[in-house]
Specification:
6 strands, 245 residues
């Protein structure tokens, strides 16, 4: 389904869907440029990411160029530790803290994606966290074999996990779990033990929408319901939101 059709069908999601589209274009640009130029030098890759962000989000490069110095000054390699970018102590008179945090989250995304290698296989079984970057996940797919595949919100790695189990507290008691479904049968799985939830969709949703992070966005009403009931989402969606109001 084309994004324009989806916005027309769900006009209340126009703003997050348009932001999603820009983030996808930004990540795709960074990946293609890194591959095209065959760059491995961290300084040059930072340039690619910042220029991509500037172009896609229509922000003058001069206004964000200082981030390159801030990243390098931190003394750690964002290609190995992308999370350092989200922790940069950036203050702005023009942007709110929330806007700065959102900007840094988006800029971080390509660096996390660069961590993942094509064809890399590793499960979430041991810790419930992404085995590539250590991030919590709030999104999973049930494949045609009825297996659960957890999906990392940052590096986008996909790995197997227990079919019935909370990835945060490892509760495996189905009596301490609840499920609600939306109109497309995308569901929120509540853990009554640790008061958290993940969202789960079937493989046929993936076939329809082509991107798990788009499925996460179109089911934002599930987040609202879950959070109003007091359940916690432990990782952000692709546009950087954990708390949905």
């Amino acid at each position: 389904m084309k994004l324009e059709e989806l916005i027309k069908e769900k006009p209340y999601l126009q703003s997050p869907l348009e932001l999603y589209d820009k983030i996808r274009k930004f990540i795709d640009y960074c990946k293609s440029e890194k591959e095209r130029i065959k760059l491995e030098n961290t300084t040059d890759i930072i340039d690619i990411v910042l220029k991509g962000f500037s172009g896609v989000f229509n922000i003058p490069y001069e206004s964000i160029a200082f981030l390159k110095d801030e990243i390098l000054k931190y003394g750690k390699d964002p290609m190995r530790e992308p999370s350092i970018i989200r922790n940069l102590p950036i203050q702005s008179e023009e942007l709110s803290k929330e806007e700065v945090d959102r900007m840094l989250f988006i800029i971080t995304k390509p660096f996390f994606v660069f961590l993942r290698k094509d064809g890399q296989q590793a499960s979430f079984m041991d810790t419930g966290k992404c085995p590539i970057c250590g991030t919590d996940s709030s999104l999973a797919m049930i494949n045609e074999n009825n297996e659960k595949i957890m999906i990392c919100p940052l590096c986008e790695h996909e790995g197997s996990f227990y079919r019935i189990c909370c990835p945060y507290c490892f509760n495996k008691d189905s009596g301490k779990m609840e499920i609600i479904l939306d109109e497309e049968e995308i569901r929120a799985d509540y853990c009554l033990e640790c008061n958290t939830y993940i969202k789960t969709f079937k493989e046929n949703h993936y076939i329809k929408y082509k991107d798990p992070f788009l499925i996460d966005l179109i089911s934002l009403p599930l987040d609202i319901i879950a959070q109003r009931r007091g359940y916690i989402r432990r990782s952000p969606n692709i546009i950087g939101l954990k708390i949905i109001e």
